[in-house]
């Protein structure tokens, strides 16, 4: 009887290990990697990663961004979404080398916290980002108050001091909308500080004109 019990015990143990070894391990889901703001002729070694967790506030991040630019490198951030690993490059200039950079306001879009600003006095919620982008990207100089062409469009991003944690979410929405409209990743983004620009005087005897966004129900 003892011999039979030992045999059954050995068979049970062997069956248990067999079942464990036969379990199919599910492969880990691979995230798709995509880079925004990097052009084909750029050297990979120029990119300097900015780890957002190491910065106390947005101003610190902005200062570090400008330091990297002054070292002839490209600041970038990496972040994960549900399906992608994204890298976004910033094109901030080194202000130590420039007294002033002339950029036409019509070729810019500003995002401060959760608000989009276009043409000084037009403000939109962040949920309107795709509509605002599309209007500028598809303009091609037709409306004189909008961007001349997509290559000249510059997007400024700024936050209050405690808004740094929102940056990945904003970048995710911005890059998704831009890619959806253009099918490219050649987006120009600057980190910036918020400042109010006074509107220019209207041309003599000519009314100011800008087309309002029309939303699709």
UniProtKB/TrEMBL annotation:
Origin: domain of life: Bacteria
UniProt protein name: Lipoprotein
Protein's organism: Costertonia aggregata
